[in-house]
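note to self: the first set is below, dont mix up w the second
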Amino acid sequence: MSEAKAEILRRIREATADGPVADPVQRTYRRTSSRDRAEVVEMLRDRLIDYRASVRDETEETVAAAIAELLGPDARYVVPAGLEPDWLPADSRGAGRERITEPAVGHTGERAAVRGAHDGEREPLSVDALNEVDAVVTSSTVSCAETGTIFLSGRPDEGRRAITLVPDHHVCIVPLDSVVELFPEALARVEATAPITMISGPSATSDIELERVEGVHGPRRLDVILLDRAG
């Protein structure tokens, strides 16, 4: 916490010291699920499809081929430095698809250049550069089936927020063991200080006449891979 923020909070505490004490929050809502794993996963699938995302089931043996199919033969796509390399197609320059590896970025904003097989030393891509790529492939922290929401928290296999908001196509890997039913269960798996991005389907908004417009605040195409790491 910065000195300025600490000083602001200190002054607030000082100014409200004589105020009434708030009643304790009654946490009587459900905080743990009673559903079995298969039911929770199907709930997430149903919600995501309803939000117009595409959903497919893969294993660690099939996920690379699935991603290659979703990207197409000529895509330029971004991946965060910490994404499991075995999950990705074997791409190289001159062979159609081009993979661009983003460096790891910590929650504090600290950046480190990364050396990829074909990229050399690379700094984080600018917004203009991200706007020129076709897609981004990331993993995810946790997914809430009840709301159909995927959480990204800036981990090394997810990357910084910009890489999942600027490209028009996001391929998001959701390990089955990261799927929970309830929102409190999902929040419990996310660091309180992490830069959390919550995704519930492709980006979409409506104007005053309820005309749906996609891709305004993020990718207009979302492909979700439910990854069975035990299979």
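second set (the one i keep forgetting abt)
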Amino acid sequence: MDGLEVGQRARVRAVDGRGSMTVRLLEMGFVPGVEVALIKRAPLGDPLELRLRGYHVSLRKAEARLISIEAFADNEVQP
């Protein structure tokens, strides 16, 4: 998620790692193929506010690093 700018969209490729946080991210909807958008970063960069499946979720940067993404080719910043 580090490569995304506010307003950009990407597709989840995979959730890396093992353990309870990986399971929790999958339960929250971060599954391969789903579209996510970076809505906002907190002033110090942590946490991130993301939109997926019609709802907003906040993740710490450490949690977001477990999610591999693929940015859309036409990835213009959306308002």
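remember for set 2: The chain has one domain: 9-71.
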